[in-house]
Design a protein that fits this description.
Layout (H helix, E strand, L loop, with lengths): L4 E4 L12 E10 L2 E11 L4 E5 L6 H8 L7 E6 L2 E3 L4 H4 L2 E4 L11 H11 L6 H10 L15 H13 L5 E5 L7 H16 L3 E5 L11 E5 L1
Parallel strand pairs: 4-9, 4-10, 7-8, 8-9
Antiparallel strand pairs: 1-10, 2-3, 2-5, 5-6
Helix pairs in contact: 3-4, 3-5, 4-5
Length: 222
């Protein structure tokens, strides 16, 4: 069982409540083993939470709980000052969740995959917006290629292109820098910085050094 260390990355970076996104005394279990307990944070507008930890420490489990995709062992989560439970529509309407593995269909093109991801998220799909988003992540030339011929980094960029189309306030990203080259990482950092500058909130689990573009971040080590 792990007791996570919660640390402020900069003097005064922890945001006082009320906060946009907060958790109190979260715990998670895998089988009969408690993965971690005592997770607590409070993030205001323009703030980020960075989750660190070894493989198997429960980073993905924490992100899935925060995204409302599964239940915590115990503890509470609040969004916009209101307590929310797993699968709460009120939070998911404001949320983009991108998991560790790009969820692409091999025989669909990059453009078709992105349009499908947008549709699954419940947003309207406009072909021009999809094309612009793919161009933003440097995939305009690959838009009509099937996903099976794309590199791992290009597949990751297709999924991250959701961020180029997003107006949602809460981003939860699981290892978003995986397989990205320097250009892709620079784009991701720019997208995160712009999102936070607009008052958005971000939670990301990462092994990579990602510059979130703000002093207002909290780090949790599992």
């Amino acid at each position: 069982m792990r007791n996570p260390r919660i640390a402020s990355a900069a003097q005064g970076s922890l945001v006082p409540t009320p906060a946009m996104f907060a958790a109190q005394d979260l715990a998670a279990r895998r089988g009969n083993v408690v993965l971690w307990q005592g997770i607590a944070f409070a993030l205001g507008e323009g703030a980020a939470l960075v989750v660190k930890g070894a493989n198997g420490s429960g980073k993905t489990t924490l992100l899935r709980i925060l995204a409302g995709l599964t239940h915590a062992e115990h503890g509470t989560i609040s969004w916009r000052g209101t307590a929310v439970s797993a699968f709460a529509q009120s939070m998911r309407d404001d949320l983009i969740y991108i998991g560790h593995a790009p969820a692409l269909k091999d025989e669909m093109t990059a453009q078709e995959n992105l349009a499908s991801l947008v549709s699954l998220a419940g947003d309207d799909v406009a072909a021009q917006r999809v094309a612009v988003a793919l161009a933003a992540v440097r995939l305009a030339a690959q838009a009509d290629l099937p996903a099976r011929v794309l590199s791992h980094g290009q597949r990751r960029r297709v999924h991250l292109a959701l961020l180029a189309m997003s107006t949602r306030m809460l981003w939860i990203l699981d290892e978003p820098a995986t397989a990205l080259d320097a250009d892709g990482l620079a784009w991701l950092e720019s997208a995160l910085a712009a999102h936070l500058a607009r008052g958005g909130v971000a939670v990301l689990a990462t092994h990579a050094a990602i510059d979130v573009g703000t002093a207002r971040f909290t780090e949790i080590a599992l």
